[in-house]
Amino acid sequence: MTERLPLFPLGTVLYPGLVLPLSVFEERFRRLVADLLEGAEPHRFGVVAIRDGQETAPTGVEGGNPALAGLGGDPARSLFDVGCVAEIASVESRADGGYDLLVTGTTRFRTLSYDSTGPYLTAEVERLSEEPGAEAGALAQGVERTFRAYQRRLAGAREASVAGVQELPDDPMVLSYLVAAASVLAIGDKQRLLAADTASTRLAAELELLRRETAVLAKLPSLPAVELARQTFNPN
Prior knowledge:
Blueprint: E1 2-10, E2 19-24, H1 27-38, E3 44-49, H2 75-78, E4 82-93, E5 99-115, E6 122-127, H3 136-157, H4 172-182, H5 187-195, H6 199-218, H7 225-228, E7 234-235
Parallel strand pairs: 1-3, 2-7
Antiparallel strand pairs: 1-6, 2-5, 3-4, 4-5, 5-6
Helix pairs in contact: 3-4, 3-6, 4-6, 5-6
């Protein structure tokens, strides 16, 4: 079963169940949002992480294809093929014609083909199923322990404090996505977690990544703020 979705390329990875704020100012994405709002709810689009390119189109460039601005001529090379459907939870129109959005990740998809003939990029996609996999519960317990140790090390590197004990979900699938979103990782690692076939595969990868990152943090008294800053507002 396939469907067509408008695409919103970003320099970050969106996961199912996670919330992402977006500031929309480029004309192509204004048009995307306006077209969605003219249709029936729910208003959905696909968020895909950029493999090779940039979120914001270069200014002062004339001609070319506006749908592919900043992405080169081949979106299959510039974008990762697994993304996440984003549903608009709230929208505010700005005086300059842009929008401030709050979106929620819903389901993962794999891109089958791209269409750049319109004002913004669209794609034919297939939704991906969510499978727990073998020993998801046991892996989740290990990830929870390791993630708490990682949080303490990360707080120390940031010279911050951990406020209380964060409640983590019992569901291995939900935990796998929350940990993926909350960990400071390279975009390639975050994409690999999104694309994992099962929660078990994702949790096993997170165990490896969290142990690696915790070991690195243990050897460093502090890290540059630019490396540790978590972007909470994506301007596009």
